[in-house]
C-alpha cells in the first residue's frame, strides 16, 4: 500500500512595510524613517511603536529594494590570495569588523594565488555593483579597469609594491626584511638563508630586498635562497631542501609564518634543534607564530590598523587619500634564541 504524500502548508507571507505601519498606527513613511535611520527624525514614542510592531511581525527590510532607493548596496568586497592563510583570514576578519562599524557587510573571495581567478573575481564584484573593493593582489599593479569603468572605488590592501597609481595600504616589506636579518646578525649569525614566496610578475619582493641590503651593509654574502609557495607544504619542502644542501646556513629568514611552520616541522622530523642548530625568523605576526614549537620570532604587521585605514580610505571620513605604509614590529620569541616576550 502506497502512503499518500502530505502537502506542505503554504508559506506564511512575509510582513510588509504597510503591515508594520498598520500595527504601529503610523504612516509607512514613519516606518521607513525608523528602518533607514532617516532622513527625518521620529519621536521616541512613534519609534518605540514601530520597533515593537517589527518585533511582533518579524518584519525584515528588503535589502535589494533599499539598495535601489539609496543607490548603495551597503556591501563591500575583498579578494585575498588564500583565505586559509591565518594572516589573510585575520586581515579579512578585521576588515569585516571595521566595515560593519560603518554599516557595511563584506563578501570575501579567494583567488587561490591565481592572477586569472583574481581578475575574474574583480570583474564579478564590479558586475554586482558593490560599494567598494579591497584587493590583496598577487601582483604589484593589478588590473582594476572593471572597477574604474563601474566607478567603484578600490584599495590595494596588504600592498607589496613601491608606489601605486591607486589607493593602497600596506607595510614596509623591505624594512621588515632588514629588521629580521639585522636581528639574526645581532645573534652572531653570518650565514643567513632566505625562504621566499614564489615570484609573480617579475617584481622582486621587498622582503628579499631587505634581506640582501642588511647582509650587504654588514659585509656578509647572501646565503642560499629557496623560492616556494606561501604554504605550510612549501615551507616543509624548503626545510627538506636546506637539510640536504651541501652547506647549511646557521639561520634562515622565512617570508611568511605559514611557510615557517612547515619549515619547523621539517627540521623537527630530521632532529634539527631550533635555534641551537638553526635559528629562524619569519614574517607576518599571525597566531601560527605564537603557537608553533618553538614559538616563532616574527616581523608583525599591524592587521587591525591596516584594516581600519583601508576601510576609511574606501569610505572616506579622514582616511588616507592615496596610500599609507605602516611600520612593522619585531616580536622576539624562542626560534631565534631570544627569551619569549609573550
Please characterize this protein's 3D structure:
- Helix 8 (173-186) packs parallel to helix 9.
- The protein has 13 helices and twelve strands.
- It is of the alpha/beta class and 342 residues long.
- Strands 2-1-3-4-5-11 form a six-stranded parallel beta sheet, with helices on both faces.
- The longest helix has 15 residues, at 86-100.
- It has three domains: 17-61, lambda repressor-like DNA-binding domains (434 Repressor (Amino-terminal Domain), Orthogonal Bundle); 72-170 and 304-326, 3-Layer(aba) Sandwich (Rossmann fold); 173-301 and 329-336, Rossmann fold.
- InterPro entries: HTH_LacI, LacI/GalR-like_sensor, Lambda_DNA-bd_dom_sf, Peripla_BP_I.
- GO terms for molecular function: DNA-binding transcription factor activity; transcription cis-regulatory region binding.
- Residues 15-70 form the HTH lacI-type domain.
- This is LacI family transcriptional regulator.
- Keywords: DNA-binding, Transcription, Transcription regulation.
